[in-house]
Amino acid sequence: MKIATFNINGINGRLSVLKRWLAEQQPDIVCLQELKAPDNKFPMSVLSALGYDAIWHGQKMWNGVAILAKGIQLQEVRNTLPGDAGDDHSRYIEAIAGRMLICCLYLPNGNPAPGPKFDYKLAWFKRLKKHAKYLLSEQVPVVLAGDYNVIPTELDVYNPERWQNNALFFPQARKAYKELTRQGWTDAVRHLHPDERIYTFWDYLRNAYGRDAGLRLDHLLLSPQIATRLVAAGVDRHVRGWEKASDHAPVWIELADE
């Protein structure tokens, strides 16, 4: 089984990229972030024609998350992260897919930092850690996939010194990510590629993709009940070079059959 996460950076504007990638790679489950579309503008008919079912939680102009599945029934569990009834950002959606739980998230960027946006990022992270701990207590197969907007270590950024004053690399954000993984989650890409420089994001500016000046922001975290099935993980970085590409590339894992 192949599970992927992809910050599409505007699903309707980059629908040709999404269709091409889905046809090329044939993932079984996909978590999408930054749809930038309200619910009624989600291109369900196009995805259905490609054989995908979907659940989504959109938002006009910003945010938005979705889970796609091919040949697997999706049962939505929730479309908000617990812990703040007043948070109206579309950043989290969770579904039962077969015999596993798929959680798609789009963690706040936090810039400019310090400031209110960074405070919101840390508060959101705190809620995520609490919910993730609860999910682990259920002792079921869980995948926490998405754009975490965190550079976990210096190995995950082309030039650490340049990012010292960015919320993506602030010590508090990196600490929160480390605390999350220490609950018992396996960072799939880093687990299989412990010493490689692997990036999932390249800015549109300064020829970042051409220079391979990237960041690793998109992660798939696995609960112990599913981590034992992990056999491969990688990044479809060539997608970033396509016309009208997102500034993120799809990240994927392959799981052995149960």
UniProtKB/TrEMBL annotation:
* Site annotation Important for catalytic activity: residues: D218
All copies of the Endonuclease/exonuclease/phosphatase domain together span 4-248
User: Catalytic residues?
Assistant: Y106, D147 (proton donor/acceptor), H248 (proton acceptor)
Which InterPro entries does the record cross-reference, listed alphabetically? AP_endonuc_1 (IPR004808), AP_endonuclease_F1_BS (IPR020847), Endo/exonu/phosph_ase_sf (IPR036691), Endo/exonuclease/phosphatase (IPR005135), ExoIII-like (IPR037493)
Q: Which domain of life is it from?
A: Bacteria
GO MF, one example = metal ion binding
**Which Gene3D superfamilies does this one have?**
Endonuclease/exonuclease/phosphatase
* Cofactor-binding details, from the entry: Probably binds two magnesium or manganese ions per subunit.
Name the Pfam families for this protein.
Answer: Exo_endo_phos
Per UniProt, the keywords (alphabetical) are: Hydrolase, Magnesium, Manganese, Metal-binding
Point out the signal peptide segment. none
Cofactor(s) recorded for this entry are:
Mg(2+); Mn(2+)
Site (described: Interaction with DNA substrate):
H248
Under the heading PROSITE patterns, the entry gives: AP_NUCLEASE_F1_1, AP_NUCLEASE_F1_4
Binding positions (Mg(2+)): N7, E34, D147, N149, D247, H248
Marked site, Transition state stabilizer, at N149
For this entry, list what GO says about its biological process: DNA repair
NCBIfam families tied to this protein: exoDNase_III (TIGR00195), xth (TIGR00633)
UniProt family annotation: Belongs to the DNA repair enzymes AP/ExoA family.
According to UniProt, the name of this protein is Exodeoxyribonuclease-3
The opening ranks of the lineage are:
Bacteria, Pseudomonadati, Bacteroidota, Cytophagia, Cytophagales
